Amino acid sequence: MTFTCDHLEMGTLLRILAIPGSLRARSTNLFLLETAALLAPAGMRLEIFAELGSIPLFNPDRTDVPPTVAALRSSIQDADAVILSAPEYAHGLPGALKNALDWLVSGIELTGKPAALFNASPRSVYAQAALREVLVTLGTRFLDQACVTIPLAADSRTPQHLAADPAIAAPIGAAFNHLAATAAALETNAATAASQPIGRALPNWQPRPLPEHRSFRGRYCTIEPLDAAKHAEALYASLCNPSDASGFTYLPANPPADRNEWRSRLENYAASRDPLFFTLFDEGGGTAGICALLRIAPEHGAIEIGHIHLSPQLQHTRAATEFQYLMMRYAFDELGYRRYEWKCDALNAPSRRATLRLGFRFEGIFLNAIVYKQRSRDTAWFSITDDEWPRVRHGFEIWLAPANFDSEGRQLRSLAALRALE
């Protein structure tokens, strides 16, 4: 079976580097890549990197570049796109592949490079999620639509036999089309004098609207503009427990001395437009938390969620997850923002775990970023971009569906697991 790619111009050659994650000679993931190589259409060449097992253990103190690492970097640099296919070991990535990726952290070879995953086992969800996270962290242009999962048994069929199977050939052909389309778009947007790399062109970009101080109603939670007169007393009762001030540890402000100080603080919050504060209500309608949209940059299409302070009755509930979904949906789908940020004290482990669960990408730590409460803070940065949002949104919508909860409101499938199935 042969395919053509509409996005490949006559005379051009699209180079795809395929990296198998297993060192097994008869790995199904290797067979999948060999099958893909046979199915590559005219104008496309898929080459398999076969030296993964020869790459030495990563050592950040090592100053030289081992020859096999240099070969890997050169192969990625010369490729128009990268495909990885890896099995799952103990809910994680194979060590040889993770070791190779560690060698790439300090380089720019993967920055902006179109990347996709080919998966030979539908049960390999944890490794796929981990590999996706690593690739996105390394700056690849991750292409969800070019990812394929094709169950392959350890049988006697050769790649030639597999390539002749329409059920296998069709999704691979579709993936090639997405890779070719992305490569063509990147070529179109590239600088004519290609002496320096530049970002993708946004010729029709317009500044986005400022967020409104409005209400949101979901299935499990409600969000309203912060109103000190209406909400201060109930928020004081739910957030300002004198015997437990742990909720204020990583917030900019200390616990209030009394109700009067709290009301005055909320009056200032309510008058602000950046940060733009909201009151959160739990599933039973109780006043249970605060959040804010801040660092609002409509000219760049970037916005941050922060000042999150949840009462114990709201923490770890589906209402707490839904308010995050509602705010993201507002930023991306209604306002058209390109980037949605989350930042926290790097030592705030619960916040960092929650961020990753919600689908944010970890971007790194800014050392000595700020001083607050007479102490230094290293700030961990996380984001979701408009390219990533459709997948994140779909995971939220499946997780929040009533069918995902038992009669006690307990989840049946986790948000991270649902997102990994995408």
List keywords for this structure.
422 residues, alpha/beta, Rossmann fold, Aminopeptidase, 12 helices, 14 strands, elongated
Structure notes:
It is a single chain. The chain is of the alpha/beta class. It has 2 domains: 14-189, 3-Layer(aba) Sandwich (Rossmann fold), CATH 3.40.50.360; 216-420, Aminopeptidase, CATH 3.40.630. It is built from 12 helices and 14 strands. It has helices at residues 28-39, 67-78, 95-103, 125-137, 159-163, 166-189, 228-239, 259-271, 318-334, 349-357, 389-400, 415-420, and strands at 14-20, 44-48, 81-85, 114-119, 141-142, 148-149, 216-217, 222-225, 276-281, 287-297, 302-310, 339-345, 361-372, 375-385. The strands form 2 sheets. An 8-stranded mixed β-sheet has the order 7-8-9-10-11-12-14-13, sandwiched between helices. β11 (302-310), α9 (318-334) and β12 form a beta-alpha-beta unit. α7 (228-239) crosses α8 and α9 packs antiparallel against α11 (389-400). The longest helix has 24 residues, at 166-189. The chain starts with 13 loop residues before the first strand and ends with a helix.
